[in-house]
What does this fold into?
Amino acid sequence: MSEWCQNKKCPEKKNQNQMRGSKGAKYYQSNKVSTWLGHWCSNGCRDVWWQDHKDTCMNAVGYIDKQVLPLEDAWYVKYNYGYYNEESSRYFLINKLKGISQIITQQQAQTPEQIAEDHSWRTIDDTQAKELAIQLGLAS
Ligand SMILES: [Zn+2]
It folds into this structure.
């Protein structure tokens, strides 16, 4: 790890905050990394770095083939906010590959913890959605 931006052309941005040195011997230096990005000072510097090094990264990580999500794993729960009042909000158990979109209750759509937190938009994950579909006899 380095505390300096990994784009070697970072000083070429010539920003005021990159100026150092005394009169007659001034220079521009790299920015420090942003805590958000980790290795670069900005998205611009990350993009420059990525253009130079993407093939090296891909060769190190390795390429994968086409990925597939089969029909029986394509379940998810969606929260539709009711614009007129809270009561018109609905939860749906959905599998578009099977052509199913079924209204479910909040108790089915959320974990007890999510209900306790009172964040209506949070829902069970896709694995739990599949389990619910099996419980409801929509899948086997
Ligand atoms: Zn930079």
In short: The helical segments are 43-61, 106-109, 112-117, 126-135. The first strand starts at residue 19 and ends at 20. DSSP finds four helices and five strands in the chain.
